């Protein structure tokens, strides 16, 4: 199969035009057609010679994201289920905030991490996405927003899959997103979330970027985290904390910890006290994002009571740990990652 036209970074295009004996400025023209004008065919690249357009068509293909479903929430959230060329399905979500539009992208078809409260892992991992398949999600979202004169202002890599298990493709995606000749998304407006793939936390710390990092922690200790997140057996809690310390020390950037609250499981005052102690002693430059767990039919977890959520937050803040409660988006359209795909998979079986 030919590579996707979106698979190449700007630097890759510079190399490609040199290798194909084209003038250097052609790289900028190609990038402009893809990410500023956002065309969908080689024929539309009208300022390129026909021979060059033919060469591009011979060597590359556009990513095809076929819209299977689109659900729009009363809060403005739009969730897409897209079918890829190989008939696998992925999800992409546009979330509207008072500060702009955020797109949540998927990096894998399915997930092998196996978090016990998440719909993304249902059915396991099918394959990694190519860089172009990740990029196409943002381009497609931007095309939708073009109709109303809006733009994608931020990106979260928190959809289906573990981004740090598709690391190289994720980094190519990021390089395209932040490039000034492309969509030009500010680095500090992009957040990558990982379940704790320790070697790549170190690797990401050494990338020298301003991109935000979020760690899905969900428990204050090794034993409970292993029950909730099998990845903890590969990369134990203590190793994760050491990697987080390295990240903060190397980058000087505040780290976000995501903590999904599950009724009667990890939401008790003693859990909050233990979490506060671990973070205060090891990673005081942090922020905890408390997430009331989404109900998933195939899972048994229930949402933490409202008063208990606020109690958990107060305990963290009393211990000088900054904590907020995530605003929910699209709860009326199953917008949590993996839910729409799981329904699609089940209907396919029927």
TrEMBL record:
<keyword id="KW-0698">rRNA processing</keyword>
<dbReference type="GO" id="GO:0070040">
    <property type="term" value="F:rRNA (adenine(2503)-C2-)-methyltransferase activity"/>
</dbReference>
<keyword id="KW-0408">Iron</keyword>
<feature type="binding site">
    <location>
        <position position="193"/>
    </location>
    <ligand>
        <name>S-adenosyl-L-methionine</name>
    </ligand>
</feature>
<feature type="binding site">
    <location>
        <begin position="216"/>
        <end position="218"/>
    </location>
    <ligand>
        <name>S-adenosyl-L-methionine</name>
    </ligand>
</feature>
<feature type="binding site">
    <location>
        <position position="111"/>
    </location>
    <ligand>
        <name>[4Fe-4S] cluster</name>
    </ligand>
</feature>
<feature type="binding site">
    <location>
        <position position="294"/>
    </location>
    <ligand>
        <name>S-adenosyl-L-methionine</name>
    </ligand>
</feature>
<keyword id="KW-0808">Transferase</keyword>
<feature type="active site" description="Proton acceptor">
    <location>
        <position position="91"/>
    </location>
</feature>
<dbReference type="GO" id="GO:0051539">
    <property type="term" value="F:4 iron, 4 sulfur cluster binding"/>
</dbReference>
<dbReference type="InterPro" id="IPR040072">
    <property type="entry name" value="Methyltransferase_A"/>
</dbReference>
<dbReference type="GO" id="GO:0030488">
    <property type="term" value="P:tRNA methylation"/>
</dbReference>
<dbReference type="InterPro" id="IPR007197">
    <property type="entry name" value="rSAM"/>
</dbReference>
<feature type="binding site">
    <location>
        <position position="118"/>
    </location>
    <ligand>
        <name>[4Fe-4S] cluster</name>
    </ligand>
</feature>
<dbReference type="GO" id="GO:0019843">
    <property type="term" value="F:rRNA binding"/>
</dbReference>
<dbReference type="GO" id="GO:0046872">
    <property type="term" value="F:metal ion binding"/>
</dbReference>
<keyword id="KW-0963">Cytoplasm</keyword>
<keyword id="KW-1015">Disulfide bond</keyword>
<feature type="active site" description="S-methylcysteine intermediate">
    <location>
        <position position="337"/>
    </location>
</feature>
<dbReference type="InterPro" id="IPR058240">
    <property type="entry name" value="rSAM_sf"/>
</dbReference>
<dbReference type="GO" id="GO:0005737">
    <property type="term" value="C:cytoplasm"/>
</dbReference>
<comment type="similarity">
    <text>Belongs to the radical SAM superfamily. RlmN family.</text>
</comment>
<comment type="function">
    <text>Specifically methylates position 2 of adenine 2503 in 23S rRNA and position 2 of adenine 37 in tRNAs.</text>
</comment>
<keyword id="KW-0949">S-adenosyl-L-methionine</keyword>
<dbReference type="InterPro" id="IPR048641">
    <property type="entry name" value="RlmN_N"/>
</dbReference>
<dbReference type="GO" id="GO:0000049">
    <property type="term" value="F:tRNA binding"/>
</dbReference>
<dbReference type="Pfam" id="PF21016">
    <property type="entry name" value="RlmN_N"/>
</dbReference>
<dbReference type="GO" id="GO:0002935">
    <property type="term" value="F:tRNA (adenine(37)-C2)-methyltransferase activity"/>
</dbReference>
<dbReference type="InterPro" id="IPR027492">
    <property type="entry name" value="RNA_MTrfase_RlmN"/>
</dbReference>
<keyword id="KW-0489">Methyltransferase</keyword>
<keyword id="KW-0479">Metal-binding</keyword>
<dbReference type="GO" id="GO:0070475">
    <property type="term" value="P:rRNA base methylation"/>
</dbReference>
<keyword id="KW-0411">Iron-sulfur</keyword>
<feature type="binding site">
    <location>
        <position position="115"/>
    </location>
    <ligand>
        <name>[4Fe-4S] cluster</name>
    </ligand>
</feature>
<dbReference type="InterPro" id="IPR004383">
    <property type="entry name" value="rRNA_lsu_MTrfase_RlmN/Cfr"/>
</dbReference>
<dbReference type="Pfam" id="PF04055">
    <property type="entry name" value="Radical_SAM"/>
</dbReference>
<feature type="binding site">
    <location>
        <begin position="161"/>
        <end position="162"/>
    </location>
    <ligand>
        <name>S-adenosyl-L-methionine</name>
    </ligand>
</feature>
<keyword id="KW-0819">tRNA processing</keyword>
<keyword id="KW-0004">4Fe-4S</keyword>
<protein>
    <recommendedName>
        <fullName>Probable dual-specificity RNA methyltransferase RlmN</fullName>
        <ecNumber>2.1.1.192</ecNumber>
    </recommendedName>
</protein>
<feature type="domain" description="Radical SAM core">
    <location>
        <begin position="97"/>
        <end position="332"/>
    </location>
</feature>
<dbReference type="InterPro" id="IPR013785">
    <property type="entry name" value="Aldolase_TIM"/>
</dbReference>
């Amino acid at each position: 199969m030919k590579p996707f036209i979106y698979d190449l970074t700007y630097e890759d295009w510079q190399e490609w035009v040199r290798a194909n004996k084209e003038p250097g400025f052609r790289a900028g023209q190609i990038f402009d057609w893809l990410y500023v004008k956002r065309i969908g065919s080689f024929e539309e690249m009208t300022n390129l010679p026909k021979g060059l357009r033919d060469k591009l068509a011979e060597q590359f293909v556009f990513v095809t994201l076929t819209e299977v479903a689109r659900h729009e929430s009363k809060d403005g959230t739009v969730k897409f289920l897209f079918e890829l060329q190989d008939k696998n399905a992925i999800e992409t979500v546009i979330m509207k905030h008072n500060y702009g539009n955020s797109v949540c992208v998927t990096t894998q078809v399915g997930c092998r991490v196996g978090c016990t409260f998440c719909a993304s892992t249902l059915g396991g991992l099918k394959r990694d996405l190519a860089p172009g398949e990740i990029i196409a999600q943002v381009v497609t979202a931007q095309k939708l927003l073009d109709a109303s004169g809006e733009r994608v202002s931020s990106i979260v890599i928190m959809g289906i899959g573990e981004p740090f298990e598709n690391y190289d493709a994720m980094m190519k995606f990021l390089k395209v997103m932040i490039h000034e000749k492309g969509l030009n998304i500010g680095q500090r407006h992009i957040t990558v979330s990982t379940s704790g793939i320790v070697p790549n936390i170190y690797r990401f710390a050494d990338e020298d970027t301003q991109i935000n990092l979020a760690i899905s922690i969900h428990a204050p200790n090794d034993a409970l985290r292993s029950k909730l997140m099998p990845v903890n057996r590969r990369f134990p809690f203590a190793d994760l904390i050491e990697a987080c310390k390295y990240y903060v020390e190397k980058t000087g950037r505040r780290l976000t910890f995501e903590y999904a609250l599950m009724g009667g499981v990890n939401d008790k005052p003693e859990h909050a006290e233990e979490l506060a102690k671990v973070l205060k002693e090891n990673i005081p430059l942090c922020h905890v994002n408390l997430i009331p767990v989404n109900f998933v039919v195939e899972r048994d977890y229930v949402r933490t009571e409202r008063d208990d959520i606020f109690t958990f937050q107060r305990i963290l803040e009393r211990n000088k740990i900054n904590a907020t409660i995530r605003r929910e988006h699209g709860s009326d359209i199953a917008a949590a990652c993996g839910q729409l795909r799981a329904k699609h998979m089940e209907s396919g079986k029927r």
